[in-house]
């Protein structure tokens, strides 16, 4: 993943479709990984053995390691690890606006822009804030899935709409704060003298290499 530009591939081309399917699968695995763990999340991840890219790519290797780490995972331990990692008082906080400097109105503008993207595609986040990492990843999953479906039907107009929205959302939001969040997460883990779940180390590795791959894939 990452070596081919989706924009250079003919819509509906098997290689382009396979790449879209792989990207969409990785996005939803990451989205579930950054969600607060419960039985539904755990069951979903355990059923993703065949999801996403395979082979010796960095993304494929990281994805396989992540899914292997959760196969026999204990939900209670995973929940404890999540709460220690994303300390609700001291952070790090998995919200885009918390990684931006500026006044409250600047953060409000970020949230408003994100909601503009979501509502344009009929998405209304439930439960947590719209700028949660899980929500942004799931939105990118939705866009790549919609692009895949439209391209497969030969609907180039809709495929292009989804692709361009994904490019802009990735450029203006997701790609801008991932590095900062990962640095904060790693700092949090390094300070924690209690055992933390290996799952989150693999989750960070997958997010890092996938975002790097997406920067090459998306023009």
From TrEMBL:
<dbReference type="InterPro" id="IPR036411">
    <property type="entry name" value="TorD-like_sf"/>
</dbReference>
<dbReference type="Pfam" id="PF02613">
    <property type="entry name" value="Nitrate_red_del"/>
</dbReference>
<dbReference type="InterPro" id="IPR050289">
    <property type="entry name" value="TorD/DmsD_chaperones"/>
</dbReference>
<protein>
    <submittedName>
        <fullName>Uncharacterized protein</fullName>
    </submittedName>
</protein>
<keyword id="KW-0143">Chaperone</keyword>
<dbReference type="InterPro" id="IPR020945">
    <property type="entry name" value="DMSO/NO3_reduct_chaperone"/>
</dbReference>
């Amino acid at each position: 993943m990452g070596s081919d530009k989706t924009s250079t591939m003919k819509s509906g081309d098997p290689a382009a479709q396979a790449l879209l399917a792989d990207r969409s699968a990785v996005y939803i695995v990451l989205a579930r990984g950054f969600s607060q763990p419960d039985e539904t999340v755990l069951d979903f991840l355990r059923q993703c053995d065949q999801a996403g890219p395979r082979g010796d790519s960095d993304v494929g290797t990281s994805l396989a390691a992540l899914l292997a780490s959760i196969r026999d995972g204990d939900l209670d331990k995973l929940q404890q690890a999540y709460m220690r990692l994303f300390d609700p008082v001291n952070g790090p906080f998995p919200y885009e606006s918390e990684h931006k400097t500026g006044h409250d109105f600047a953060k409000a503008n970020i949230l408003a822009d994100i909601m503009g993207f979501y509502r344009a595609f009929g998405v209304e986040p439930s439960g947590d804030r719209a700028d949660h990492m899980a929500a942004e990843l799931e939105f990118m999953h939705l866009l790549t899935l919609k692009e895949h479906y439209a391209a497969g039907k030969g609907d180039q107009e809709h495929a292009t709409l989804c692709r361009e929205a994904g490019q802009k959302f990735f450029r203006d939001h997701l790609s801008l704060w991932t590095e900062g969040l990962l640095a904060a997460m790693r700092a949090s883990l390094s300070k924690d003298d209690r055992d933390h779940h290996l799952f989150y180390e693999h989750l960070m590795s997958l997010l890092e290499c996938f975002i790097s791959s997406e920067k090459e894939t998306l023009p």
